[in-house]
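Quick question, first post here. What does this chain look like in 3D?
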Amino acid sequence: VACIGPIALAAAGIAKIFGRAGKRLFPAKMFLCGALLLALGTLTWLQCGMYADEETLWQTTIQRNPDSWMARVNLGEFLARNGRVTEAIAEWRKALKIKPDDAFAYYDLGVACSHAGRVEEAVANYQKALEFEPDLVKACNKLAWALATCPNPAVRDAAKSVEWAQHANQLTRGADPDILGTLAAAEAYAGKFPEAAALIQRALPLATGQNDDALVHNLQTQLKFYQANSTFRDLGLTNAVPGQ
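> Answer (accepted):
Ran it through. Tokens below.
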């Protein structure tokens, strides 16, 4: 897109120069225009290779500009979407060395670490993301959920879980059923089971209205825990056991 201006200017210059010469230089004009089209076509063909697919685009960009943090972030997102979590983590870490204040990269890295079973690292990255973007709702939610439901007691923190979940809920004005579920888990871990159950009851109609069957099932599972005065541990819904 950036080339359009110079190309148009060059074309106008050629037309003006040869326009003054009339038909006398018409063959030279055709030769010059043909050579220009051939050169541009060759350059386009050479450039097209890097757009073969998304991974090639970002890999080529990084080869040409190793300090492009954005290309590394985008490559990490592509790798994560395709199940290559370890490679994605490596790219996001490289991106953060270049731009250490990228809250969104810390968040993405936290999610990837969580999927890889490295919850402590995930929590640390969510916290880092929130240092730079305190109102990053998805980071607030993920952090609060991990602090309330992680099976490892060394990770859990009831007070901070409630704090971040309440902050996320305030930012979304109590209208996000997923965040209400996180706040419920935090309140339950703090021993407030009636409040937790009430939050789930508020979240269920919202989730149903969004046609989010997975979230509805998750919320219904949590509700059984809180009605039994039990905390919820995120061991996977099918393996969750009240009180563990």
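Confidence is low (pLDDT under 50) at residues 236-244.
The longest helix spans residues 26-48.
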